């Protein structure tokens, strides 16, 4: 959940681990929302036993598909009895502390994505290079801002304004006919594509609380970037 997985994956993972640990002897159920996990366990053979309830509160801290894949690998290893429960717990705690996001790879990927999309839209190598350069700068700044503030939307707002200012300043020295395409291409890697896809999957799976919530968050993030650019356009006339 902390790394942005869809709720159906979280629900199935919790049930697989719980049923494997109890060896199918207990009646275990899980209820997952975008901020809360509730697990109940009940021994069907003991009618006097009160159900055990575990509540864990958390939230999406980032979108990290590498960690999601690693958690899937660990859970499958536990279900296959390749790991014991203490070993699984230690591995998950260690994974939680690791930062598997590579800043050089993220910035290089942003350059490739921004430059490619801008070239497809403008057929201009200069516009493509500038969009890739600003896209790489934007991704680096967003990662650094989030590292120190740990607040969503602020980094995207600031970076969209900075990129727009840089493009407008560059226009004073170089005539750029498709400067809007450069700005859009530079901001494209920051769009919440994974979050949008996850929200749609949650809605189709019937999770009508987390799905719309994540969809709204993705829309706010997109509007935040638009607002950052509009502020510069409004002031710089």
Q: List the strand order in the largest sheet.
A: 1-2-3
Shape: elongated
State the major sheet.
3 strands, antiparallel
Q: What's the β-strand tally?
A: 3
Helical amount among residues, as a percent range? 55-70%
**Mean pLDDT across every amino acid position:** 85
Please indicate the count of domains: 2
Along the chain, the helix and strand elements come as HEEEHHHHHHHH
Give the class from helix and strand content and strand pairing. mainly alpha
**First and last CA, distance:** 44 Å
Low-confidence regions: none
Tell me what portion of residues adopts beta-strand conformation. 5-15%
Radius of gyration: 22 Å
- Distinct helical segment count: 9
GO molecular function, one term: transmembrane transporter activity
Family: Belongs to the ThrE exporter (TC 2.A.79) family.
Subcellular location: Cell membrane
Domain Threonine/serine exporter-like N-terminal: 1-235
Provide tags for this entry:
about 240 residues; mainly alpha; transmembrane helix; cell membrane; ThrE_Dicarb/AminoAcid_Exp
Describe this structure in words.
Belongs to the ThrE exporter (TC 2.A.79) family. The protein has two domains: about 5-95, no CATH class; about 105-235, no CATH class. The chain contains nine helices and three strands. With about 240 residues, the chain is mostly helical. It has a three-stranded antiparallel beta sheet, with helices on one face. The protein has helices at about 5-20, 65-80, 85-95, 105-120, 125-150, 155-170, 180-185, 195-205, 210-235, and strands spanning about 25-30, 35-40, 50-55.
